[in-house]
Structure formats: structure tokens, C-alpha cells
Amino acid sequence: MSIDENTAARVAKLARIKVEPDALPALAQEFNGILGFIEQLSEVDVEGVEPMTSVTPQRLKRRVDNVTDGDQQEKILKNAPDAREGFFAVPKVVE
């Protein structure tokens, strides 16, 4: 696939990037270079290769998932302008 100046101008417009008309040939050439790299990557045989999260094998960091209520209800409600029965009280907005 090849990108011409008209396509480069359209891509720039869709990306909301102002490109001067004299810079369009260089932009089209840069797009073609990127597409060339993508074509090279599609030629690589990745059959049987495990997906990686990093270049070095490592286990993802994990923590114990303990459910807590935080025990901060009184502290939080102390800052509220109006609190009732352990909840924020707000004016009614729906009739």
C-alpha cells in the first residue's frame, strides 16, 4: 500500500493537524516508511511464541485482596454539610 499526498492531507485533516502543502510530500513519505515497517513485521513467523508483558520474564506484582469498610465513615461525614443516618443528605432534585 502506498500513501500519496492527497491521502496524507486527508489523514492530517482527520487527525486535526495543520500541515502546510509543501510539507505533504515528506509526510506521505514518512507514512510510507511506517507502512513498510508494518509490512516487515507481518512477515515475521510468530508461530508458537508466547505473548510477553516485558522483555524479561517476571511475575506480576500482586497483593492480598482484603475487603474492609475503611472505618472512616464518621471522619468523612464530619465534612458533610448535612448527614443523616450515616449517609450524605442532599436536596431532592426529582419530583
UniProtKB/TrEMBL annotation:
Its EC number is 6.3.5.-. Pfam families: GatC. Keywords: ATP-binding, Ligase, Nucleotide-binding, Protein biosynthesis. GO terms for molecular function: ATP binding; glutaminyl-tRNA synthase (glutamine-hydrolyzing) activity. The keyword Cell membrane does not apply. It catalyses: L-aspartyl-tRNA(Asn) + L-glutamine + ATP + H2O = L-asparaginyl-tRNA(Asn) + L-glutamate + ADP + phosphate + 2 H(+); L-glutamyl-tRNA(Gln) + L-glutamine + ATP + H2O = L-glutaminyl-tRNA(Gln) + L-glutamate + ADP + phosphate + H(+). Coiled coil: none annotated. One of its GO terms (biological process) is regulation of translational fidelity. It is an enzyme of class 6 (ligase). HAMAP family: GatC. Allows the formation of correctly charged Asn-tRNA(Asn) or Gln-tRNA(Gln) through the transamidation of misacylated Asp-tRNA(Asn) or Glu-tRNA(Gln) in organisms which lack either or both of asparaginyl-tRNA or glutaminyl-tRNA synthetases. The reaction takes place in the presence of glutamine and ATP through an activated phospho-Asp-tRNA(Asn) or phospho-Glu-tRNA(Gln). Heterotrimer of A, B and C subunits. Belongs to the GatC family. PANTHER family: GLUTAMYL-TRNA(GLN) AMIDOTRANSFERASE SUBUNIT C, MITOCHONDRIAL. This is Aspartyl/glutamyl-tRNA(Asn/Gln) amidotransferase subunit C. It comes from Sulfitobacter geojensis.
